[in-house]
Amino acid sequence: MLDTYKLIMKQTLLLLFFITSSIGYTQNETTFEVKIDANMENANDPEEKEIIALWTNYLQSGEYQNVATTFWDTSQYRIPDYFLWMVDLRSLRTRTPKVQCTILGIFAVENGHYAVKTSLAHLTEDNTVVLEAILSVYAKKVNGQYLLVNSSQYHKDIWQKKQVGNITYYIHPMHQFEEKDAVRMNVFNEEIAKKLRTSPISFDYFVSSYSREIVRLLGYEYMSKIYIPGQTGGVADVQNRIVYAGNNSTYYAHELVHNYTYELYPNANHFWLNEGFATYMGGSSGYDLEWHIQKLKAYVLENPDFEISLSELRGYIPNGQHNTEFRYVIGGIICKKVFEEHGMDGVIEGLRTVDTDEDFFKFIKEKLNIKEEDFSSYIKEIVVK
Q1: Peptide bond before residue 318 is cis, with ω within 30 degrees of 0
Q2: What are residue 256's phi and psi, to 5 degrees?
Q3: 131 touches 121 (CB < 8 A)
Q4: Tens place of pLDDT per residue across the chain (385 aa)
Q5: Buried b (16+ CB within 10 A) or exposed e, 94-126
Q6: What pTM did the predictor assign?
Q7: Would you call 16 helix, strand, or coil by DSSP?
Q8: Separation CA 214–CA 209 (nearest Å)
Q9: Residue 243 backbone dihedrals phi, psi, to 5 degrees
Q10: Contact between residue 22 and residue 134 where contact means Cβ atoms under 8 Å apart
Q11: Are 151 and 136 contacting, i.e. CB atoms less than 8 angstroms apart?
């Protein structure tokens, strides 16, 4: 299994050498063009030709997250193309500068599947080629015709599988599975369900040592920042009940919280409150909320004039560690304070109703008696005392 995995990696990396020669300089104004790399010798073979037509028709259709799709295999995941949010698929056909989409290669892999490698790139005004991503999707025959299969579904039969309670783990070939943390994760699943007045969900959990392995699993051979050394992290696929953990751990509570809040409160999606709640309940980057509050405290003490703005504040606390995202910890503080004064029902009300910044400030005025103009000073007072 490991040798096969390494072989696939070598095959896909070789495609990088052909990207520059595949970049076109024009694109039809009304049709999104999908090109075939000149080095792809099997493009006219019967199987490959059918797969090219399937993938091309999907990309040109403008379809995305269609539960009734005829392009994708939906036998295991309800929204199999959800992962394409990372390249903003909805805007792909109309984006400026125009995106050049090139099928780089198709080759047979395990279990009757074919791998399809596709580059997305554009030209700058000075004709510099900018590679945006290399996508990796799969195709297999279902009832006599090919359907697209996302990378996660394909790798479920390649990676090691373990069941722990309601969690189905899929483990990267180079990762050492930790049973103790998996049991702890299952306990957290039961606890968060109880706190949110619902039943524990069953979900898939893909685990590896680094973020780049998870990004590849998601279907990206390349994307911006994928090769930063030692980068860890995770992401939730809220449409398909999946947790992806690239932090070398079978315990990643933060992303599971997102699966719950999306299912229970799909119409309210305020970034600060949702990420704050996930950090309050499940921590972030391997640390609990209190740890992150101490990082924010140190920053505020060094920068007393620091202004906390809902519309402008972004990114990580600039302490060289890249562990604490401002919005995660500040949103977590709000959830913590609301819980202390109104219990979980108060927090749930916010998760259920807060969507816009206006909703957010109305919520904290009602629950904490904090006016919008006092928000920044309120947070700073809490963290420094």
Answers
A1: no
A2: -65, -40
A3: yes
A4: 444 444 444 444 444 444 444 444 334 445 789 999 999 999 999 999 999 999 999 999 999 999 999 999 999 999 999 999 999 999 988 889 999 999 999 999 999 999 999 999 999 999 899 999 999 999 999 999 999 999 999 999 999 999 999 999 999 998 889 999 999 999 999 999 999 999 999 999 999 988 889 999 999 999 887 776 666 678 999 999 999 998 889 999 999 999 999 999 998 789 999 999 999 999 998 899 999 999 999 999 999 998 999 988 888 888 656 678 999 999 999 999 999 999 999 999 999 999 999 999 999 999 999 999 999 999 999 999 8
A5: eeeebbbbbbbbbeebeeebbbbbbbbbbbeee
A6: 0.88
A7: helix
A8: 9
A9: -115, 130
A10: no
A11: yes
CB 354 within 8 A of CB 360: yes
Give the list of residues 6+ apart from residue 177 with CB closer than 8 angstroms, or none. 160, 162, 169, 171, 207, 250
Spatial neighbors of 94 by CB under 8 A, at least 6 apart, are: none
Contacts of 167 (CB under 8 A, 6+ apart): 182, 185, 186, 189, 202, 203, 204, 205
- The residue whose two tokens read 């994928």 is 226
